[in-house]
Amino acid sequence: MKNKTAVETVVDIETRDMTMDDLEEVLSIESVSFPTPWSEGMFLEEMKHSFCHDLVGLVEGQIIGYISFAIVYDEIHLRNIAVHKDWKRCNVASRLLSMMINISSGRGARYATLEVRESNEAALELYKKFGFVVKGTRPFYYTDTGENALIMWADF
Predict the structure, then answer these.
(1) Could you give all domains of the chain from N- to C-terminal order, each with its CATH number?
(2) Residue 53 in contact with residue 72, Cβ under 8 Å?
(3) Spatial distance between the Cα atoms of 116 and 132, rounded to a whole number of angstroms
(4) Which residues are tagged catalytic?
(5) How high does pLDDT run on average in the chain?
């Protein structure tokens, strides 16, 4: 994996549907990205539902990030997004969110929602850039730390 600096940007990122063959790399990123990472079974469960969409972002064949979201009627629910530590601040998450919006808009979705840890300043900054605003709080949502989740919404 190439090391990137925060000022570099990814220009040529390929995105495609996640497959079972991707899970080893995805789980590796997941395990270092979250205090309570998703299990392989959670990803497999996501991948079997037609309303769930799981994409990977690749550079030169290497998975550098992924996104999981659901589309229910006119609403998107961002369920999971993570970027490999060597590719953070390289617009990977922005590219994945843009793909989510494009796919979902093409299927009639007009709104999006997500939950995010109150302390996750980088994620909050990213989501606000995409028009998400805080609309509520889920007290003690994260059982690993007891931290609250902020509920964010965007209208596309």
Answers:
(1) 14-155 (3.40.630.30)
(2) no
(3) 11
(4) 115, 127
(5) 93
